[in-house]
TrEMBL record, chain A:
InterPro entries, per the entry: PAR6_homolog, PB1-like, PB1_dom, PB1_Par6, PDZ, PDZ_sf
CDD domains in alphabetical order: PB1_Par6, PDZ_Par6-like
Name of the protein in question: PAR6B protein
Gene name of the record: Pard6b
Annotated Pfam families: PB1, PDZ
Residues spanning the signal sequence: none
GO biological process: cell division; centrosome cycle; establishment or maintenance of cell polarity; regulation of cellular localization
Location(s), subcellular: Cell junction, Tight junction; Cell membrane; Cytoplasm
Biased composition regions of type Low complexity, renumbered to the chain: 259-277
Annotated source species: Grallaria varia (variegated antpitta)
Automatic annotation (TrEMBL), chain B:
The protein's name: LLGL scribble cell polarity complex component 2
Organism: Grallaria varia (variegated antpitta)
Main function: Part of a complex with GPSM2/LGN, PRKCI/aPKC and PARD6B/Par-6, which may ensure the correct organization and orientation of bipolar spindles for normal cell division. This complex plays roles in the initial phase of the establishment of epithelial cell polarity.
Statement: the UniProt record of this protein carries the keyword Cell cycle: yes
Keywords on record: Cell cycle, Cell division, Cytoplasm, Exocytosis, Phosphoprotein, Repeat, WD repeat
Membrane as UniProt keyword: no
GO cellular component labels: cortical actin cytoskeleton; plasma membrane
WD repeat locations: 45-79, 409-427
Subunit (UniProt): Interacts with GPSM2/LGN, PRKCI/aPKC and PARD6B/Par-6. The complex is enhanced during mitosis. Interacts with DCAF1.
GO molecular-function term, one example from the UniProt record: myosin II binding
InterPro entries, A to Z: Lethal2_giant, LLGL2, WD40/YVTN_repeat-like_dom_sf, WD40_repeat_dom_sf, WD40_rpt
Amino acid sequence: MNRAQRGAAGSRGLGTMEVKSKFGAEFRRFSLERSKPGKFEEFYGLLQHVHKIPNVDVLVGYTDIHGDLLPINNDDNYHKAVSTANPLLRIFIQRKEDADYSAFGTDTMTRKKNVLSNVLRPDNHKKKPHIVISMPQDFRPVSSIIDVDILPETHRRVRLYKYGTDKPLGFYIRDGSSVRVTPHGLEKVPGIFISRLVPGGLAQSTGLLAVNDEVLEVNGIEVSGKSLDQVTDMMIANSRNLIITVRPANQRNNVVRNSRTSGSSGQSTESSLPSSTPNILGNLLQGEEESDEEDIVIEDNGEPQQIPKAAPTSESIESLSQIELLHESTQNGFLPSSEMNSSHSAGSISMEYEVPDPGRKPLEEDGTIITL
Amino acid sequence: QTVEHGFPHQPSALGYSPFLRLMAIGTRSGAIKLYGAPGVEFMGLHEENNTVMQIHFIPDQCQLVTLLDDNSLHLWSLKQHGGASELREEHRFTLKGPPGSPPSATQVTAILAHSSREVLYLGTESGGVFAAELPSLRVLEDRTITSEVVLQRLPEDNCNRRSCELVEALREHPKNPGQILIGYSRGLIVLWDLQNNKVTHHFLGSQQLENLYWQRDGSKFISCHYDGSYTQWPVSSDNRQPEPLENTVPYGPFPCKAISKIYWQTTKNGLPYIIFQGGMPRASYGDRHSISVIHGSHQTAFDFTSRVIDFFIIFTSEPAAEFDDPSALVVLAEEELVVIDLKTAGWPAVHPPYLASLHCSAITCSHHVSNIPLKLWERIISAGSKQNIHYSSMPWPIDGGTNIAPDPPQRDLLLTGHEDGTVRFWDASGVCLHLLYKLSTVRVFLTDADPNDNMNTLGEDEWPPLRKVGTFDPYSDDPRLGIQKIYLCKYSGYLAVAGTAGQVLVMELNDEDAEHVVDHAEADLLQDQEGYRWKGHEKLKTREGPVRFEAGFQPFVLVQCQPPAVVTSLALHSEWKLVAFGTSHGFGLFDHQQKRLVFVKCTLHPSDQLALEGPLSRVKSLKKSLRQSFRRIRRSRVSSRKRRGGGGSASEVQEANAKFDQDALQEMELAPVQRKIEARSAEDSFTGFVRTLYFADTFLRDSSRHCPSLWAGTNGGTVYAFCLRVPPAERRMDEPVRAEQAKEIQLMHRAPVVGILVLDGRSTPLPEPLEVAHDLSKSPDMQGSHQLLVVSEEQFKVFTLPKVSSKLKLKLTALEGCRVRKVTVANFGSCKTDDYSENDLAVLTNLGDIQIISLPFLKLQIRYPCIRKEDVSGIASCVFTKYGQGFYLISPSEFERFSLSTKWLVEPRCLVDMPEVTSNNHVHNKSAVENSARKSSPGDYGEEERKSGRLMEHALLNDEKVLKEIQSTLEGGR
């Protein structure tokens, strides 16, 4: 924080960025070091400080390069805001109690030149019953479309976050056949399709999956050549963090990139898929795939605890066998609960000598040969 | 795959070579299997996979001919290669008639392998007899005996065109190879002179002919007929058209069924043996599968448990001998092989060393124990020998070939649990799976089934004199008796057996008969859960008071789970004298020393109504209805047979099956196959189902003190760990065993836990109870820290102990879409050096693949397909041994053995020599010449065979490569 203030006082060098912050009718100007923006909490504190509103809960927003008013409420979007601001970072601050959520979103800034006027002059659509949707920090993601940049545009990779919700996944798959372009011309090949969406289920509520969408991959692994039961097992095994790549039955809602029309590219991109697969797999494995896997242990009928995963000092991923060999570390940075921390001090001592010596081979430990 | 054990599924043909003393069995799937002395086995598979209809050995040759139902003929031969004999197909041939002739002209119905070994005579449906040259199987046109030629040679008054239709039998004259007897279906029999191409004699039978047999001296022959009669005919040089000597209907006077095959065997004492199949009174015994033996005043109709496929008689193979002197009757029935000793009074059965009917009651589970201590082995054998007193002491009469496989390095037992409540102990050390001992748990319980002791009673005054033989009895009277889990401790001789109605029996080996009371305890697994009603079967009623048990394993403790659901897991610790058992409701621990229940734990989720009501009630009722419908089919089959008279049994079952299939198909089409994708949750059904139980002495609470512990894994991905306090040996009877829950681990992916294992400080799996006490294993390393391996259907996970933190994992389902079905620790030794071995996990997946996963780093070493993924019962029946072998059921009656280790391979390796003494003595001396010629050039044959490649013996899979691959992977990691 001091750093930021020092920056505000200093000259506008290459590494600094000007911030123009508005709360009500008041403006404040200061500057931040672009390379070291710090955490959102610090920034929030700084804003409260410069506006002299230390105990007021506020919402922070900024205008991005497209002129959209976007919220800043965590480190990620804060960093995004800092990195994209050019040259000026415009900050809008509202009191939480009289915040206008509809002000946020795409085109809000271009549509209405002045956010404040929007707040003061209620729009037509605001006459509808006001749906209170809390800010994204209270949301848990339930689904997302990912890897749009590396997939053919006829495909869609959807991630369903089961752990963030109590909703059932709620879909069914079936066998079917699809037409592929192969070197021998059009061929009918067996495929797996979504056959039913359960009303109210996660799959249906996201709107990203539909009946008759063809399932191409499950968590980065192609399903071609696998039976319906195998694909079912794979999906259930990955159900806590399910990433499925589909070819939507309805190709009209595809994101149109470049100048290609979505209709004509129906099969043309098929052959490019295998080449991108290793790339995809890498993304998935290095991603948050493991975060969903904490088992729970109850000691002596006590409180349930998450099983700590020994923090990896090095994570070696063998591309073939896909084994993660996690080495013990004394720096267990992300123990979730306080009871864990207290018991950890005792536990870590015993864990010390469980570190497998990388030089020691398992085969040295010969099982005894039993003879009579 | 190395060898198949048990009885071939759906046998369809039988052949025997008195010269080689080998027996051949053909099946409906086109397999042919040769058996000789114990350990001598060959297998071949016809590419067509068609039913084998007939098998004929070429006299005095290592060759045989098979006829398939597509009318193709196949010539097989046994050849030596690399010191062992192999069975290989040499030629195939389909008889072709002149252009435009009907298919019946070439439909082969009878085969005669002529003793000259040069010609095969083929009788056809239209009445022609073709001669095919051996070994090329080329038709010799000039030697064809057409029905027209035969008719020309007959006096015209008593013959018409139709009398020469369908050749039923071809028999060579026993003394004069130039003459053959041709029997036509309509009853006409002619003796044909091969040299002069003419009919020397003709015999007019009035009844439809079934079969023919020569008397040894060639002066008489016997024919058997469709109406259940047989007739003797004289053959003399003066009379060209002899009248029958004697015509008998053995089970008359009411209409009888056909006699389909007959033997006439002469003896020194003058009284011949007449042995025939069928002939039973049609109305009252038409459904029996019988073979009758008549010898003077003795007459017995052996009543078989299933349809008789074929039979043969073993008699003196000495060609110069004056009499047949039959020694044994060998009968191939659909479900078992029965050999009757004809030399011993009372004609007892001979205990077969192989081809055991594994499925005499359906197999419900199996358990393998490697390396049995000699003492226990001998005690089991002695207990078994007391059960086998009614068997003949005759040595196995089919004793051709030499077993040259090395002696099995250790004694292995395979235990099979059956639906009727029996446990069978099989010697699984070598190629022959041999029944050692049979244990029945039925005596402990009161059932409506009366002990079936009419097995070997000889009905003296009853007619026909039926006598039941064979052990095949698939109809269980009470499905609750079924055995579900078996655990044998090879060191202490304790055996725990658990069954379908929640019964757990602990047994001890006793060498004497004994009468005692079985202690009885009840384990209420629901405990405080209330308001539930069990809708499944009732628990078994126990017999009050002392029960008499024969020598062998005798139960002394019975624990019955309440509700009486099927026992799903079982563990026995013979050192601590504890037995743990689990059902779909929970698990319990029983102290069988003090005979006290230590604790029970309910694993049931309160909302799991389905499990409470008895998950198996639906399955059971389905099974019941299936059983009933099969009985119905059987009954209708019997009655319709009475109506229509024979023949149609197989086709009717097929019809019924086809109808079932059709119904099933229709159902499938109505509801499109779709699968629900849903994460597992705590509320799912059957999460409380206890899948695995494991005893371990490890660090459960803290890292300084280790203690006995019991681990249980459920279907819902929960692992419970209980800390046990077992009093020291001197106060074992005085202080109670105590248990306290120490840990509960919930796997987030909630997949069923199928295996739990503790690795010691050296990352070696903990030894079995008493293994260390018997100096058979190094004591586990209690210095280093232990690790816990939990295997779920989806993942392998290693946790540290005593603080449970996850260390390693290997995901299987998420990556490959297959689930773990069976997992065992297997010890792999190197076949090159004796001092090297390692422990790995052998895993069978639901796709039938076998994977080897290294310990403790969980690396996939190798994967290879083993069982077809559609073969659900094969996958379910798979059992691994401790040394990297395994067994699974390829049919209800056969175990396939496979080996993952190059060190432990059990496969037939045997030699069949041309028995020289016999061939020298034989009337045709040409064979001896040929023999020596054959022997002089073994090298040429070797070359030839190497070129042609694959062994027919192991037609299914060429394992060697795979095994080498495993070995190299294992050694590469070193």
